[in-house]
Amino acid sequence: MKVILVYDINEKRVQKILKICRKYLHWVQNSVFEGELTEAQLERLKTELKTTINEEEDSIIIYTFKTGWYTNREIIGLAKGKEDFIY
Hints:
With 87 residues, this protein is of the alpha+beta class. Helix content is 29%, strand content 26%. The chain has a 4-stranded antiparallel β-sheet with strand order 2-3-1-4, covered by helices on one side. It is globular and about 35 Å long.
Protein backbone atom coordinates (compact mmCIF):
# COMPACT_ATOMS: atom_id res chain seq x y z
CA MET A 1 0.00 0.00 0.00
CA LYS A 2 1.08 3.58 -0.56
CA VAL A 3 1.81 5.63 2.55
CA ILE A 4 2.27 9.33 3.30
CA LEU A 5 3.45 10.14 6.81
CA VAL A 6 3.67 13.62 8.32
CA TYR A 7 4.75 14.49 11.82
CA ASP A 8 4.99 17.32 14.32
CA ILE A 9 7.41 16.13 16.99
CA ASN A 10 9.02 17.83 19.97
CA GLU A 11 12.55 18.91 19.08
CA LYS A 12 14.04 16.46 21.62
CA ARG A 13 12.72 13.46 19.66
CA VAL A 14 12.90 14.66 16.04
CA GLN A 15 16.17 12.88 15.21
CA LYS A 16 14.89 9.55 16.55
CA ILE A 17 11.65 9.83 14.57
CA LEU A 18 13.53 10.89 11.44
CA LYS A 19 15.78 7.84 11.70
CA ILE A 20 12.80 5.47 12.12
CA CYS A 21 10.90 6.97 9.18
CA ARG A 22 13.93 6.77 6.89
CA LYS A 23 14.15 3.03 7.53
CA TYR A 24 10.75 2.53 5.91
CA LEU A 25 9.89 5.52 3.71
CA HIS A 26 11.41 8.11 1.37
CA TRP A 27 12.02 11.62 2.68
CA VAL A 28 10.04 14.22 0.72
CA GLN A 29 10.60 17.36 2.78
CA ASN A 30 10.80 18.42 6.42
CA SER A 31 8.52 16.14 8.44
CA VAL A 32 7.03 14.44 5.34
CA PHE A 33 7.72 10.93 4.05
CA GLU A 34 6.11 8.71 1.45
CA GLY A 35 6.59 5.27 -0.01
CA GLU A 36 5.16 1.81 -0.48
CA LEU A 37 4.88 -0.60 2.46
CA THR A 38 3.37 -3.97 3.18
CA GLU A 39 0.83 -4.22 6.00
CA ALA A 40 3.52 -5.84 8.18
CA GLN A 41 6.02 -3.07 7.49
CA LEU A 42 3.42 -0.44 8.31
CA GLU A 43 2.65 -2.15 11.62
CA ARG A 44 6.37 -2.32 12.51
CA LEU A 45 6.75 1.36 11.64
CA LYS A 46 3.78 2.32 13.82
CA THR A 47 5.07 0.21 16.70
CA GLU A 48 8.49 1.88 16.58
CA LEU A 49 6.93 5.33 16.39
CA LYS A 50 4.54 4.68 19.28
CA THR A 51 7.39 3.60 21.54
CA THR A 52 9.37 6.75 20.72
CA ILE A 53 6.85 9.60 20.82
CA ASN A 54 5.20 11.33 23.74
CA GLU A 55 1.51 11.11 22.87
CA GLU A 56 0.75 14.22 24.93
CA GLU A 57 3.21 16.39 22.91
CA ASP A 58 3.77 14.76 19.53
CA SER A 59 1.57 14.16 16.49
CA ILE A 60 1.95 11.77 13.56
CA ILE A 61 -0.54 11.43 10.71
CA ILE A 62 -0.36 8.43 8.37
CA TYR A 63 -2.34 8.43 5.12
CA THR A 64 -2.70 5.07 3.36
CA PHE A 65 -3.80 4.46 -0.22
CA LYS A 66 -4.67 0.91 -1.24
CA THR A 67 -5.61 1.59 -4.86
CA GLY A 68 -3.02 4.15 -5.98
CA TRP A 69 -1.31 7.42 -5.29
CA TYR A 70 -2.99 10.79 -5.12
CA THR A 71 -4.18 12.12 -8.46
CA ASN A 72 -2.00 15.23 -8.47
CA ARG A 73 1.17 16.35 -6.71
CA GLU A 74 2.16 19.98 -7.12
CA ILE A 75 5.23 21.60 -5.60
CA ILE A 76 5.36 25.36 -5.21
CA GLY A 77 8.79 26.68 -4.33
CA LEU A 78 11.86 24.61 -3.55
CA ALA A 79 11.48 20.87 -4.14
CA LYS A 80 13.07 18.90 -1.32
CA GLY A 81 13.83 15.20 -1.29
CA LYS A 82 13.61 13.00 -4.35
CA GLU A 83 10.56 12.42 -6.53
CA ASP A 84 11.81 9.65 -8.80
CA PHE A 85 10.39 6.76 -6.77
CA ILE A 86 6.69 7.48 -7.38
CA TYR A 87 5.25 5.40 -10.23
